[in-house]
């Protein structure tokens, strides 16, 4: 233990000239060779007392000490180490090794070459310092910054002048990233871009991780992001203005990372991705099965989701594969699969705040109701589990240590105040731990692809409903099984010219059960409900013919509906933009599984 505190003190002993120091019980330094005691004392920081005092004993020594400098490095090298650590974390979680070697590395080299940061004869601009007033150790010296093309030894320039100027940083090209001109450029790296690159590599490799899975692993700390710079090598000193590049305080949203990924695709001009076939785990046919299990819905519902995929033409792999010519949009695989489940539930239970509860009341009468799926029972189980999951997430966020243990000081003036604030924060945290008897930090929880756990175990979220049957909510017509419900509603499906979401405007008119279902999946994916709402509308545009989907005029859509024999209510919904629902279905939707009003009346008379 003494060696840790005496390693930095290398002054020879005044009597025997030996450099072998120890620390006595009183905290004073003594020579182990001749037992000479000197006035130097060990710094002691006692955090066990409750009195909030930031006063500590200090070691008297020389006032000026030459700062330790590591190797000269560039910002892209720091991001390369961070990207490598993120990829290694995914490999430990079970991702295929080809993801890193065959996909991510070539993608990273391509990005460096396109952004002119490496692998090019015309590198990006490098910044030089021109110091106007140079002092011995003055931090208020003014400087002028000029940018030149090429790399005319920027490392030596930055390393020689940063000490005398007010600019303090560890990397050699920090000013390039902080200049106003380069901030407007899309070629500069950022922490958010590392997640976008990881996500693109996962999609190219057709791994079973969606974007919401990736962000959840980042939030839980299984993939380094918030304090990723702490894992940089020791010789790469991250100081000063580097904090504006490498320090992030929040995890970016699902929408932000997806948009960043599409920007990178356009910037790199990537070719068509490998096809996402039905056997791929990213395909909605298999991804929806996973989400059905996570939300505790019956397994018998999955074939109906596949039937909906076939009817809407979404079984085609070209719709789920990025192609710059045929399909130039990167799909949101997780949101798309959840939207298909929501539309399937609407086909079965209507979700208009009335029909679903009437069907649930009818299902409570048979003797074998314990084996038949009941939407009311499922709602009660899911509501309780959702509340508990939200409380767990809030507690984990409140207990999470957001501040890094290895702080980066923006400048030398703020270093002392930041050290003092850190000591006070540690003392306050220690006091709260003693008062609340709460374990320090978060408990290590293994990563999982599922949010909820169903079964009869002690720590499960509720009983499993996967084995439940759908016999009481389906009927046979013309030798085909179809849902008992023959009603379907939807908002106005015509695309707005501004291409913005109108969810907030129509939210008050939507059924509460439908909104609750959106919020359930939004909690699972950590997205806003309007993102799911837009995906649901996209699926419904494919169901209700695609004159709406292709964006024809209102008159053409109304004329086509009248020619097809649609009801006046359906025609009215086609001609209105803010109509919240359509109470009757078009003939095209009836082909999926819906019945007629006469058959429904016949069933009601037989029950009575």
TrEMBL record:
Annotated Low complexity bias: 559-589
Subcellular location: Nucleus, Nucleolus
Compositional bias segments (type: Basic residues): 598-608
UniProt GO molecular function: RNA polymerase I core promoter sequence-specific DNA binding; zinc ion binding
Entry annotated with the keyword Coiled coil: no
Keyword vocabulary terms for this entry: DNA-binding, Metal-binding, Nucleus, Transcription, Transcription regulation, Zinc, Zinc-finger
InterPro entries reported for this sequence: Rrn7_cyclin_C (IPR048538), Rrn7_cyclin_N (IPR048540), TAF1B/Rrn7 (IPR033599), TF_Rrn7_Zf (IPR021752)
Keyword match Nucleotide-binding: no
GO cellular component labels: RNA polymerase I core factor complex; RNA polymerase transcription factor SL1 complex
Protein name: TATA box-binding protein-associated factor RNA polymerase I subunit B
Organism: Oreochromis aureus (Israeli tilapia)
